[in-house]
From TrEMBL:
This is Uncharacterized protein. Gene3D superfamilies: CD59 (2.10.60.10). The keyword Disulfide bond applies. It comes from Desmophyllum pertusum. InterPro entries: Snake_toxin-like_sf (IPR045860). Keywords: Disulfide bond, Signal.
Amino acid sequence: MEAMLLLRLAVISFLPQVLGLHCWGCYSDTSWADCENELTSRVCSETDDPDFVCQTYVTTITTHGKPANYYLKGCGDRKDCGGTNCGRGNENKTIWCEFNCCCQDNCNTGILGKGEVSVSSSQGTSVGMMIVPLLMSLYALQ
């Protein structure tokens, strides 16, 4: 009886990892090649957000005329997919970005370059990018 209970608990504890969305993940402030060298598949968890998608994202934050590029792949929140922060800025800082999002296991392959902004759909669901948390953390670093 105890063995059966332990088996059930073990199976239940692994269900989120088995059933969760898998996304490629990496980050670099150097290049896509650098990001891809650190590429790993990870399971999106409830701590990321219960309604996540896989994302590929590149941004350039220009502060006082000096650009800094950031390259990112990972899990993100579907509701942040509108890209509303792309192109925003003020007198000292501008933010440019490109993104692609999808909602199938490890679908965030490839890289983005200027002129390749896209929002992918899968199974009729419009998705996009997680920009708010990343931009806020990068904005705070400047």
